């Protein structure tokens, strides 16, 4: 239980002043998921989990009505909605005790584990496609910061200190991560003084203490009639247990990229197979290989080929069956895409290749895990970041092992 902590007592008072009171949800620290909210009572399907009045939400309306408003209205080209929110967070954090948002700012994390915040040597340990996206994210935030500097300079009259010291890269990165990992979605709004990019983010104090579970369902939206952001349970929650919401049916790579965490036993998690890996174990002398690959491309079968908890995906097996088609059966390619069995040999060869790919992945994953474990011993300061990466790979190894077992069964009895 964390509700006795002074920052939560202050937050509760602040929320009460804004017409929000909740006796059921209690901030607490949970093994595995960290800080979140616990329910004092059991929650039934359809029951309201939380209903947060509009007066508690931090949106671009809040920013425009603040002392930043006139500066935003003057600035050309108009700042984006995200820039407005980030600027507000940095400004209010800097204001300290003078900020009316202090009780909320005080419960925000002081650091994040989004890829943009990870050390380059940790990013290097990520799976290749995720590594590329992590680098893109970092480059995006750096470029966003660099291109916003002139706007920050225009705010100098609001500060005693040099704006450069208030709007440092680390302060901006913190604000960007706060918005990106915690904001809820609101229907797009439009302000003439902001750019045309979608203005859909709102920070929702207290409500944003709810952690994600891929196993729950909720209904969340702003209710115009009650003027509250409401979340209703779509599945049951037992009393005294952590209350979860679902951020979306995301796999672990996406959760890490967007929110900086990984969900163990995530049913949406999978291990993707790249194009290079798909063809690696095929006979190189196949004259029809180019044609086969262009058929796969034309029919959208080259992306999203995965190993999952329940084995190689249907798409992966179908792509492999087409790539393994014997020369004399090539004309049957349409039937393959429709899921028809062409021959025993085609079924067997494609499964063999799926197995080889899976075994290679298992080997590679085990090697990375060893490297991470080594680094954890040597770089103690990076332990949190390394543990995150380790959890991702450990989950992927579990998925691959589950897939390998299923393939072995299918190999023993390909046409049950
Ligand atoms: C909206 S906040 C939820 C509250 C947050 N745990 C806190 O203490 O402020 C979202 C962040 O919580 C963490 N989180 C959410 N669900 C999680 C989970 N199932 N496991 C671990 N961390 C989780 C991630 O850091 C994520 O970026």
From TrEMBL:
Q: What is its main location?
A: cytoplasm
The chain positions of domain SET read 23-248
Coiled-coil residues: none
Q: Which reaction does it catalyse?
A: N(6)-methyl-L-lysyl(20)-[histone H4] + S-adenosyl-L-methionine = N(6),N(6)-dimethyl-L-lysyl(20)-[histone H4] + S-adenosyl-L-homocysteine + H(+); L-lysyl-[protein] + S-adenosyl-L-methionine = N(6)-methyl-L-lysyl-[protein] + S-adenosyl-L-homocysteine + H(+); L-lysyl(4)-[histone H3] + S-adenosyl-L-methionine = N(6)-methyl-L-lysyl(4)-[histone H3] + S-adenosyl-L-homocysteine + H(+); N(6),N(6)-dimethyl-L-lysyl(20)-[histone H4] + S-adenosyl-L-methionine = N(6),N(6),N(6)-trimethyl-L-lysyl(20)-[histone H4] + S-adenosyl-L-homocysteine + H(+)
Which class of enzymes does this protein belong to?
transferase
Q: Where in the cell is it found?
A: Cytoplasm, Cytosol; Nucleus
**Which GO biological process categories is it annotated with?**
inflammatory response; methylation; positive regulation of inflammatory response; positive regulation of interleukin-6 production; positive regulation of tumor necrosis factor production; regulation of cell proliferation in bone marrow
- List GO terms (cellular component aspect): cytosol; nucleus
Q: Which PANTHER family match?
A: SET DOMAIN-CONTAINING PROTEIN 4, UNCHARACTERIZED PUTATIVE METHYLTRANSFERASE
What subunit structure does UniProt give?
Answer: Forms a ternary complex with TBK1 and ZNF268; the interaction with TBK1 is ZNF268-dependent and leads to TBK1 monomethylation.
In the record, the note on similarity to other proteins reads: Belongs to the class V-like SAM-binding methyltransferase superfamily. SETD4 family.
The name this protein goes by in its record: SET domain-containing protein 4
The species is: Jaculus jaculus (Lesser Egyptian jerboa)
